[in-house]
Amino acid sequence: MNRFTAAGHDERVTSRVGAWLGVAFGLCFLTGLLSHAIQHPPPWFGWPSGPVWLYQATQGVHVVSGVAAVPLLLAKLWSVYPKLFDRPLIRSPLHALERGSILVLSGAAFFELVTGLFNVAQNYLWGFYFPTAHYAVAWIAIGSILVHVAVKLPVIRRAWSGREVDADRRRFLRTTWLGAGVAVVATAGATVPLLRDVSVLAWRSRGGPQGIPVNRTARAAAIAVPADWRLEVVTAAGTRAFSLADLTALPQATEVLPIACVEGWSASASWTGVRVADLLRAAGSEPGAPVRVTSLEREGLYRESTLPGRHTEDPATLLALRLNGEVLSPDHGFPCRIIAPSRPGVLQTKWVTRLTIEEIQ
């Protein structure tokens, strides 16, 4: 006698939930690859500087699709857990491959979703470096999904071409879609401004000094701005130093650009400062070459970043001195910071002390 008679324990339900889970994981995987490539670009990779909201959109999709995958994964596992009680445990080499792919897929999926949610909360309970581990396990997860789909293809075809889903199973599916929808709406406000008033679980989309959140404060970075601070711009023509008064005396530009964090939250603001292209020209160089940006921060993985050539020549890329009409607060990078369109927040280097044209290295 079948002990598992609940509506969810049916291959037609499993296949439909699995299809949407595959979409969620696929979006999460592809946008995650993009984010990783932007932060660690291989020689062949290029990322455009426009539209200004492009990274904001792709990283928002990455985090929101990961959130949607949580209730979908739980529903799918609920639908198939009776298989754990099938006997014999292994019936054939193909059956062993199927079970192995499910084990690897479940482990990798839980690792990605759980560590991803902790990363969103900036709560790291582990000793490994999150981006490297998350990136590596993402390939394991997507590989196991492809193996699993290939092995289960006959069952999937039968489930989609067979009997209609009855009322009880439709209710289960509707509850699953509702759960995923609620999870998305409750969190998507971190990225989608129109949803911020209804996204009760949205994180870090509001508040912070000067109305914009920060991930790393000046105190946490142990920033001490020397009284004789100068910005050094190192070009093939030599090194030119600019005081804050010198920078303020240069032509100023204002751009509305988002800070888009890898954790998925984003917030737009009005930034005022010197166009990086104009600054390079003032230092005797032409924009269009990559520029290494160095921070006053002594330690940290992101104390240096590289601004690609397409960004150094984009007029929207600023060495920002003011935020929303006010002088930058220490937490937002006083005396100056980089703000460029379509870039991750971790690469919008704060407390800048040196710009170096990389071609002269």
UniProtKB/TrEMBL annotation:
<feature type="transmembrane region" description="Helical">
    <location>
        <begin position="102"/>
        <end position="121"/>
    </location>
</feature>
<feature type="domain" description="Oxidoreductase molybdopterin-binding">
    <location>
        <begin position="226"/>
        <end position="358"/>
    </location>
</feature>
<dbReference type="Pfam" id="PF00174">
    <property type="entry name" value="Oxidored_molyb"/>
</dbReference>
<keyword id="KW-0812">Transmembrane</keyword>
<feature type="transmembrane region" description="Helical">
    <location>
        <begin position="20"/>
        <end position="39"/>
    </location>
</feature>
<keyword id="KW-0472">Membrane</keyword>
<keyword id="KW-1133">Transmembrane helix</keyword>
<dbReference type="InterPro" id="IPR008335">
    <property type="entry name" value="Mopterin_OxRdtase_euk"/>
</dbReference>
<dbReference type="InterPro" id="IPR036374">
    <property type="entry name" value="OxRdtase_Mopterin-bd_sf"/>
</dbReference>
<feature type="transmembrane region" description="Helical">
    <location>
        <begin position="172"/>
        <end position="195"/>
    </location>
</feature>
<feature type="transmembrane region" description="Helical">
    <location>
        <begin position="133"/>
        <end position="151"/>
    </location>
</feature>
<dbReference type="GO" id="GO:0016491">
    <property type="term" value="F:oxidoreductase activity"/>
</dbReference>
<feature type="transmembrane region" description="Helical">
    <location>
        <begin position="59"/>
        <end position="81"/>
    </location>
</feature>
<dbReference type="InterPro" id="IPR000572">
    <property type="entry name" value="OxRdtase_Mopterin-bd_dom"/>
</dbReference>
<protein>
    <submittedName>
        <fullName>Oxidoreductase molybdopterin binding domain-containing protein</fullName>
    </submittedName>
</protein>
